[in-house]
Structure formats: structure tokens, C-alpha cells
Design a protein that fits this description.
This protein is of the alpha/beta class and 565 residues long. It contains 16 helices and 16 strands. It is 45% helix and 14% strand. The strands form 4 sheets. Strands 11-12-13-14-15-16 form a 6-stranded parallel sheet. The protein has a 4-stranded antiparallel sheet with strand order 7-4-3-10, with no helix packed on it. A 4-stranded antiparallel sheet has the order 6-5-8-9, with no helix packed on it. Residues 243-344 form the Rab geranylgeranyltransferase alpha subunit insert-domain domain.
Length: 565
């Protein structure tokens, strides 16, 4: 036993570690207490700076101490020369670099570095770019470092072309560098802005990028970075805020305005102006639900003088934000209503018109993706891209094939089946709106399409008959209030449990909600505020079995003919 090194037992090692932790904790608490005492007494000196070094060196996420360091540096800046400040900031930058080695994703450290670079008399921006490159080499997705690099680029006025070449190097080294792909999406619109689409690059640049990204996802089909960038390339600029439709009803003495984006009309403001026969009308604007929150539709009541039946016509002009967008509608004598609306095809609401060159490139991309999908049949990114390419080329021509690919995609990616169902529903609604416009109809048949959500209702304010039977809807959206002309609504064979929250529809006369999941008459309470409702069909709902259902509904809706089992 003699002469041998004693090996500590597990209990002894644990005790030694516990004592070491306690010792460090006491030192940490003592230093923190001393720091706060110095701050409290206003001792903003180099000793306080050194004390914060001890804490931030091991815990760079102590935000209060970074604030204290800034207070100290500002005091020392006022007391010293520019040369001393330069030296102080150089030391601070060196200390920050050591903190970043402890935690390269420390919010406080990167923020403090920005602050120091804003106060150093002679900043070395080249050195900062090199620092960013070094940290991005070790972690190419460090978004803190990417944010700091953008700050440096802005302050140093680095040309966007240089930064684009920087992303070229990173992407060539690793196609999976999502942050570099994202940075390209910010740089290209700066370098090659499309005058027709704000925030998008020109078509020639997009076509070159499509070739680059195709090489990436053929190299590694399962990496999502390039697929996401490809989706951005297929996207479009955010639509401008415009007035989509103006609808005037002589019968209701009302006017409705539909916007392309939700807006707020502040009472008493000049945001939304209404002119009747070129005379400004003082009206009170409201949303369909009366809550006056940001909304796509705003309504107002019209005075009797604006609807004189003896005049041959009345011209209503709506103006938004000082003429930024305006639309005019003429109501002729003898007409009960009138409207003026944008065309979804002419305004390219759901897709852009493609040039011959772009159409050829996208068609080639589609064929390439189909070839890749044959090799990688369960690659969800490839399947989704095929769907998006078909949408970009021609949503109506490729509708049946798109639905087939959705089924394949759901089987390959069951965790996102709900999202895919909603996306599929959105595409089907868009297609129906396109067909409705081509036929110049006011009847929309969306029955039996497996819809899980309703969207784009701002495009349907003039619809009189909406058939949603045989879908998978669980609820009706408040946006249904925009269907001011709706007279017949068919909801048979869905999964709707309640109509609670359904806004009043002023023209609705017939509502059929058979074979849903409505259990109580109370769930139909909103229908009491529908002024014209005269027929309600509810066969096949659980409330059929309630003994007092018929009488309860008769009390709730005395003017309505109700059909139960």
C-alpha cells in the first residue's frame, strides 16, 4: 500500500467540486456586490472597470454590467484625451473578443461592441470585418455575428457587390449556409432593383440565381437552405396598399370599401375621404364587426341627399391617404346597387405574368425537380417546390397534378399535414376566384374540395351564393363579414361546432348547415342578428336529439323557418 498514489473516491471528488463551486460563488457574489456599491456611490473609475472584467469574463450575459461599463467609459471619455480614448476602446474591443470566445452568441457582448465602435475616435472597420469572417468560419449561422457584420458594412460603407462576393465564397464552401442565402436575398434587390416590383431583383438576375440554387439542391437534396432560397426566388414583392373594391347599396344606404391590406381609419382623420358628386361627405367609418381595428373592409352610412332617386346618376369617389389610392363608382337611376372592383387577373393578385424566357426556365426547373423527385421520392422540399413551380407557371392548368403532389407530400411529411391542408385550401380558393372572374359570375362553388380554411374573402364582396358543403371546416372566419351581398350560404357536411363569432350578414336569406357538429341551440345565437334570414336547415346535427331543440330555436329565431330532423 505504501508508495502508491491515493486515488480519490467518487464522493471525495464530488465534495472537492462542491467546495470549488462555493469558493467561486463567494468570489462572484463579492465582486458583484462591490460593483453595485461603486455604481451606487458614483465611483466610475478604472477599478470599477476591472471589477466588471472579472464577472463578464466568465458570464458575458450580465446586461446590467455592460450598461455600467458604458457609464464608466463615457466618464473616462470626458476626462481624457482622444488618444487615451482610442487606447481605452482598443482594450475594450480586445476584452470583448475574449468574451465572445466564452459565448459567441452573447446578445450583450455584440451590442456593446456596436456601442464601442460608435465611440472609438478612429475605428478600424477592416479589422471588424475580419473578426466577423473568423467567427462565421466557426459558426456560419451565428445570427448575432451576421447582424454585427451588417452594422459594420453600413458604417464602413462597404459596397453591396463586395458583400455579394463574400456570400459567394461562403455558399461555395458550404451549400447549407442558410444565412448566406438569406443575405443574398437582401443584397440582390439593392444591386439590381426591379423598377416594377419594389424589393425584388430584376428578372435577369433571378434567372441566374435559379441556376445557382438548382446546383445546390441537386448536390444535397435533403438540405433545406437552398430550397428556402428557391422559394424566395419564386416569390413576389409585397403588394402595394390599394383600394380593391367600392360597393354602393341604395337599399341599405351604405357604402363599403375593400383594401388590399388591413388599414385603420381613425375617427375625425382625413385618412379615408368620400366624395359624392365631387362634394366631400362627412361620414363615420366602421368595420363590419364594429370594433374599428385594422381591417380590410370599412363601411359608412350614406345620407339621403347622396341617394336622390330623381337624379340620373350619383358618382362616388373614395380617396385613401391624400390620393395615394382612389376608386370611383357610379350608381345609376333605377339601380339598387353598383360597384367598381379590380380584376385579380389584370392586377396579377395570385401570380405574375411570365416572360417567355422566365416561363422556359421555370418549365425546365419543373422537369428537373420531377427527375430529382423520381430519385428521391420522399424528399418533401422537392415535392413542395414542384407544387410552387406549377403555381407559378399556371395554377389552373396544373390544378389536378398539384393536388396529387399534395397527397404525396402529406404522406412524406405527416407532421406538417395541417399546414399543407391549409396551403392546399388557399390554392383552391385562389383558383375558384380566378374561374369566377373569367366567368363573370357571382356564384362560387367550393363544395367537396376538402377545405380546412377560408381565405381571400376580400376578393368576394359581390358574391351572392357561396357553396362550402362537403369540406372540413371547423369554424367560419370573422372575415366572412365582407360578403355584404351574400344571400345563400351552404355549409352542409363540414365539422362546424358553433356559429359563435359569425358576424351579421345583411343580405343572407338562406343558411344550410346540415350534418355538422352543432350541439346546442345556443351555438346559433349570432343568427338572431341576421335581418333577412328566413330559412335555416340543421338536419343531421347532434342538437337534433335534444327534446326542446325545435322550441328553443323558435324562441331564438322567431321569424326563421327551421328544418330539423
Amino acid at each position: 500500500m505504501h508508495g502508491r498514489l491515493k486515488v480519490k473516491t467518487t464522493e471525495e471528488q464530488a465534495e472537492a467540486k462542491r467546495l470549488e463551486r462555493e469558493k467561486k460563488l463567494r468570489q462572484y457574489v463579492a465582486a458583484t456586490t462591490a460593483i453595485f456599491e461603486k455604481r451606487k456611490t458614483g465611483q466610475l473609475d478604472k477599478e470599477a472597470l476591472e471589477l466588471t472584467n472579472q464577472i463578464l469574463g466568465v458570464n458575458p450575459d450580465f446586461a446590467t454590467l455592460w450598461n455600467f461599463r458604458r457609464e464608466i467609459i463615457l466618464r473616462l471619455e470626458g476626462e481624457g484625451s482622444p488618444e487615451e480614448m482610442q487606447s481605452l476602446c482598443r482594450g475594450e474591443l480586445s476584452f470583448l473578443e475574449s468574451c465572445l470566445r466564452v459565448n459567441p452568441k452573447s446578445y450583450g457582448t455584440w451590442h456593446h461592441r456596436c456601442w464601442v465602435m460608435g465611440h472609438v475616435p478612429h475605428p478600424d472597420w477592416t479589422r471588424e470585418l475580419e473578426l466577423c469572417a473568423k467567427f462565421l468560419e466557426s459558426d456560419e449561422r451565428n445570427f448575432h455575428c451576421w447582424d454585427y457584420r451588417r452594422f459594420v458594412v453600413q458604417r464602413a460603407q462597404v459596397p453591396a457587390a463586395d458583400e455579394l462576393r463574400f456570400t459567394d465564397r461562403l455558399i461555395t464552401r458550404n451549400f447549407s449556409n442558410y444565412s448566406s442565402w438569406h443575405y443574398r436575398s437582401r443584397l440582390l434587390p439593392q444591386l439590381h432593383p426591379d423598377p416594377q416590383q419594389l424589393g425584388r431583383p430584376t428578372e435577369a438576375v433571378l434567372l441566374k440565381e435559379l441556376e445557382l440554387v438548382q446546383n445546390a439542391f441537386f448536390t444535397d437534396p435533403n438540405d433545406q437552405s437552398a430550397w428556402f432560397y428557391h422559394r424566395w426566388l419564386l416569390g413576389r414583392a409585397e403588394p402595394e396598399l390599394t383600394i380593391l373594391c367600392v360597393y354602393v347599396s341604395r337599399e341599405d344606404s351604405s357604402l363599403a370599401v375593400v383594401f388590399s391590406q388591413p388599414v385603420v381609419v381613425t375617427p375625425g382623420s382625413c385618412d379615408l375621404l368620400l366624395f359624392a358628386d365631387e362634394a366631400l361627405l362627412a361620414v363615420n367609418w366602421r368595420t363590419p364587426d364594429g370594433r374599428n381595428r385594422p381591417d380590410l373592409m370599412w363601411l359608412c352610412d350614406l345620407p339621403a341627399s347622396a341617394l336622390n332617386e330623381h337624379w340620373p346618376q350619383h358618382t362616388f369617389r373614395v380617396q385613401w391617404a391624400g390620393g395615394e389610392s382612389q376608386k370611383e363608382c357610379v350608381l345609376f337611376k333605377g339601380r339598387s346597387d353598383s360597384w367598381c372592383r379590380d380584376s385579380v387577373t389584370e392586377e396579377q393578385v395570385f401570380r405574375c405574368e411570365l416572360s417567355v424566357e422566365k416561363s422556359t426556365v421555370l418549365q425546365s426547373e419543373l422537369e428537373s425537380c420531377k427527375e430529382l423527385q423520381a430519385l428521391e421520392p420522399e424528399n418533401k422540399w422537392c415535392l413542395l417546390t414542384i407544387i410552387l413551380l406549377m403555381r407559378a407557371l399556371d395554377p389552373l392548368v396544373y390544378e389536378r397534378e398539384t393536388l396529387s403532389y399534395f397527397d404525396t407530400l402529406k404522406a412524406a411529411d405527416p407532421m406538417r399535414s395541417a399546414y399543407l391542408d391549409d396551403l392546399r385550401s388557399r390554392f383552391l380558393v385562389e383558383n375558384s376566384i380566378l374561374r369566377m372572374e373569367y366567368a363573370e359570375a357571382r356564384v362560387v362553388d367550393l363544395s367537396g374540395r376538402g377545405l380546412t380554411v377560408l381565405c381571400h374573402l376580400e376578393q368576394l364582396p359581390l358574391v351572392t351564393h357561396l357553396n362550402l358543403a362537403g369540406n372540413r371546416l371547423r369554424r367560419l372566419p370573422p372575415a366572412l363579414a365582407m360578403l355584404r351581398c351574400l344571400e345563400v350560404l351552404e355549409l352542409d357536411g363540414n365539422q362546424i361546432e358553433t356559429l359563435e363569432g359569425l358576424p351579421p350578414l345583411p343580405r343572407l336569406e338562406e343558411l344550410s348547415a346540415c350534418n355538422n357538429c352543432i350541439q346546442r341551440p345556443f351555438d346559433l345565437r349570432p343568427l338572431a342578428s341576421f335581418p333577412r334570414l328566413r330559412l335555416l336547415a340543421l338536419q343531421g346535427n347532434p342538437l337534433d336529439g335534444l327534446p326542446d331543440a325545435q322550441s328553443d330555436l323558435a324562441m331564438l329565431l322567431p321569424r326563421v323557418e327551421i328544418a330539423l330532423a
